[in-house]
User: What shape does this take?
Amino acid sequence: MPPAPKSGDALFASVDRVNAELFTLTYGAIVRQLLTDLEEVEEVNKQLDQMGYNIGTRLVDEFLAKSNVSRCVDFKETADVIAKLGFKMFLGVTATVTNWDAEGTSCSLVLEDNPLVDFVELPDTCQGLQYCNLLSGVIRGALEMVSMKTEVTWVRDMLRGDDAYEMRVKLIKQVPEEYPYKDDD
Amino acid sequence: MALAAIYNLFIINKSGGLIYYKDYGSAGRMDTNDSLRLASLWHSMHAISQQLSPTPGCNGIDLLQAHNFDLHCFQSLTGTKFFVVCETGAPNMEMLLKVIYELYTDFVLKNPFYEMEMPIRCELFDHNLAQVIQKDRVALLGR
Assistant: This one.
């Protein structure tokens, strides 16, 4: 019998934690340095997304190893697991899953509380900056490792005056895991 | 005593390449080429076993029993396979594989200088693995 999946709180309690300010300030320093190095805001957005992707491809295994979750039956369950367990384990907050489309292939993850942005105010020169683009990259990378190609975009951002943080997660395709057995495939 | 129960450990990446091999006292008849070849053969056999399944949703071979050894295999949802060859009837091997998976996520994947899908050369992983393997079975059971 495999062990039962852990709850978000149990999962959060089982991992090592760091001081929240250290985390927030470190992230801020990284974004700031990227802005200095790359100069273009658009390039910084891309770089953050790429960094997140690289983190996601590694972090997904830790999540699976420590949460005991088994294979999700559909994308809806996947979204719930990310919102309730994934966010809790790595960021200590949970997200709400809403706005499903009719096909059940895209939804929104809404964060009321986002530990990355404490102390942050976007200056006028950086209005196009997706400050939390790392997060969306992490989700894209993690899902790609479990055979789901996704597109993750920010639709609401409190740093730009919206009332919450909202990410749109769209399932592009599910890559089959089967091996190519037939020669003509 | 506890050490003798496990003969060797393999870790295979999702394309079937051997990324880690450790011998704990098999008869010592395997060189690097042998272990690489066996690993990719096991990868294929594992895939074939999924095809053999009469019902969908099969995850492949978990346990292979021979008259003088058991082979326990664990495949993560990301496609990495961990398997140990051990004495027949050695207990708690599923648990051991799960612990090894956790060690892999902690000391291999979190090492920023580890390249994904490449052979594992991480001292911290070696060190912690040795501790887990040597630990009394009772301690494993308690986890």
